[in-house]
Amino acid sequence: METKTAIRLSHVTKTFGPVVANNDVSLEIRHGEILSLLGENGSGKTTLMNMLSGIYYPDSGTIYVNDEEVTISSPKDAFDCGIGMIHQHFKLVDVFSAAENVILGIDEKCSSKEAEERITDICRKYGFDIDPKQKVYEMSVSQKQTLEIIKVLYRGANILILDEPTAVLTPQETDKLFDIIKNMRDDGKSVIIITHKLHEVLRISDRVSILRRGEYVGTVETKDATALSLTEMMVGKKVELNIDRPEPVDPKLRLEIRNLTVKNSEGFNVLDNVNFDIYSGEILGIAGISGCGQKELLESIAGLQMTAPGSSVMYTAPDADEPVQLLGKNPRQIKNMGISLSFVPEDRLGMGLVGSMGMTDNMMLKSYNEGRSFFTEKKAPKELAERIMQELEVITPGVNTPVRRLSGGNVQKVLVGREIAAGPKVLMTAYAVRGLDINTSYTIYRLLNEQKKAGVAVVYVGEDLDVLMELCDKILVLCGGKLNGIVDAKTSTKEEVGLLMTHLRTEQEEK
Amino acid sequence: MDMLVTLIQAAVAFGTVIMFGCVGEILTEKSGSLNLGVPGIMYIGGIASLAGTFLYERSTENPSTFVCLVLALVCGIVGSMLAGLLFGFLTITLRANQNVCGLALTIFGTGIGNFFGGSLNKLAGGVGQISVPTTSAAFRARIPFLADLGVFGDIFFQYGWMVFAVIVIAILLHFFLNRTNTGLNLRAVGENPATADAAGINVTKYQYLSVCIGAAITGLGGVYYVMDYIKGTWANDGSIEKLGWLALALVIFTTWKPLNSIWGAYVFGVLYWAYYYIPGLTRSSQELFKMLPYVVTIVVLVFISVRNKKENLGPAHLGRSYFREER
Question: Which residues of chain B have a CB within 8 Å of the CB of A154?
Answer without folding.
Answer: none
